[in-house]
Amino acid sequence: MGSTYRGRNESYTVVICKHRHATPVTFFHTGPTFLRNWVILPCVTISKRMAGAMTGILASTLLTVPLLATPAHAQTLAEDRPSVAPNVFFPAVARRAHDLKTPGKRPGTTIKAGCGTKVVAAHPGTAYVTNSPKSGPNLVTVVTSAGRTTTYYGFMKSTSVTNGQIVQAGQEIGRVGRAGSAAPSFCSLYFAVKNNFGKDANPTRWLARLVGKPLNTTSLFGNWGFVVASMNTLGASHTRYGGGYPTYDVRTPGQINLLNSYAVDVVGLQEFQRVQRDQFMAVSAGTFGIYPDDTTLNNPLDPFMVDNYAPTENSIIWRNSTMELVSTDYIRVPYFEGWRNMPVVLLRDRATGRTAYFINVHNPASGVGYGDQAMHRAQAIAIERQKIIDLRATGRPVFLTGDFNDRAPAFCGITSQMLAISPDSIPSMSCAMPKSNGIDWVFAAGGARFTRYARDWKPKNMKLTDHPIVWTRVHLSE
């Protein structure tokens, strides 16, 4: 027997078997902060009355957890709650913006705000601009995937997106007005939602539940996406004589387990010294493909190997079951007293057949015995930016991962002129630096957006490395 229980944006499916010879069953926990979670439970012999009681008790216990987890979040009005991409945003950006909670004959609600107030996409997706007699000539619809979460923005006096444009959560799509026959006499925004089943959802409740949290779907552009990450593995030479971290042979198996726990599909690795690479590939036993590969490393005449010291230290790995290698390339960047070749690969997502480029870099740090490296880092950023521009000319999305040893100079150098974004930033002509940042980054240029993101210090806390892992669930739109 099975029952599904829902609490806010979490749902649980509980299955109880009627006889002891039944196969094991699965308890599913799905929610916006989980990529995928499951626990296999053994079946037990149980009476119908006891089954009902146990199911009720279990569900009651489970549903209590998310209710108690974030009381402050739940008590803050959606319009007053801060958010960071790719999480859900309140659509009108103004201190006095206020949801009047008016869903009734029409499925949407009216959000009162001053004329000209910025309107932003509540979530990532594809924007469409249409003319509606009731909602005005600037009705914007943002679609995640066909038949799934879709939001509508009406009464606007202007739009700042074009038909078919992909948008980031929090990206401006228009300005508040009072256009349309259904608009009230005051300036306002009409906001409506269709849920993951294509049904009208109460927009007030939807905003109250999700603003500041991940969208309650990981379907975007018609696909479930894949996980891209960047991780500095802490070179073996740095822990040879202690220093507060275990040696590489202890840390490497833990790093593999960590990457598998995140279900990563593509990872840019830095400080990946040869002994670490050898152990990693042996322990992971064919799970991942890698570039530079063995053939490249064993051929001193390969262009990647020529005049390139420590060639394994910057590598790209991909999960063979989900990604397929199409081609390889590299770029040369200045590094301390010489140059290093940084890997570039073109990969195909097996689930969709869509392809994207991936670049992984490590720019030189200052204060480690080689003086101030700011000039070399600036030169490296310029080279990396130009490579993105060159690869974007093919029409394919481009991802850049790495330890840049810079915050604003790296972010602004890569993202300005709307060339690229990080998962937690908004497209900008200048430099829309996210509040939470570091020296490790994942950037995307072109047809790609995100549904999950974290700068996670778990690997440092576990003494696996001295850096966070930066990971994101990304979706290709083309």
Automatic annotation (TrEMBL):
InterPro entries on file: Cell_wall_metabolism_enzyme, Dup_hybrid_motif, Endo/exonu/phosph_ase_sf, Endo/exonuclease/phosphatase, M23ase_b-sheet_dom
Pfam family, one: Exo_endo_phos
Top-level lineage group: Bacteria
All copies of domain Endonuclease/exonuclease/phosphatase, residue ranges: 257-467
Domain M23ase beta-sheet core span(s) in chain numbering: 107-196
GO molecular function, one term: metalloendopeptidase activity
SUPFAM superfamilies per the UniProt record, alphabetical: DNase I-like, Duplicated hybrid motif
Protein's name in the database: Peptidase M23 domain-containing protein
Organism: Nocardioides pocheonensis
Phylogenetic classification of the source organism: Bacteria, Bacillati, Actinomycetota, Actinomycetes, Propionibacteriales
